[in-house]
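Comment on the following before class.
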Amino acid sequence: MSGRATTPELAAPRTGPDPSGTSWWIPATALAAAVAGLAVSMYLTVAHYTSASILACSSRGAVNCERVTTSAQSELFGIPVAVLGMVWFAAMIALDLPRAWRANATVARTRIAVAGAGIVFVLYLVYAELFEIHAICLWCTAAHVLAFVVFVLALAGVDTATKEDRDRT
């Protein structure tokens, strides 16, 4: 005996599935969707501060990105909705990093709460597009779909988050 204590965590590298029970593709897909959402939000932010006409989207009829991104609903308390999207997707990136998925149940609950808040805001934005602006922005829709994917994947990790609590009791 060498006198050094070894723990199972240090004795051998971790292989196989994540010990939290979450399939590897859930955090990977959530992270990819959050990164893509951040990219879309950045594009919409640049368009907001420069010229909406740079958007690669129709500016006529029901699909009209320019009408949506320049509407009164494109800002909340003077902050462009696209900037809020960037902040939200950046937060989701942090919460979707592999280390965050392996963290405790509090991080999992935070991920679900932040994702849920994002979906509530997305529902408002879709309502605004359909019933107040009467136009749809394809780039905004892409961000909404990506937010929905992030939300669904956060929910997919719920059982894992609550399993940790059950195991403690």
Q: What stands out?
A: Residues 5-19 have pLDDT under 50 and may be disordered. The CA atoms of residues 73 and 124 lie 10 Å apart. The beta strands are 75-76, 79-80.
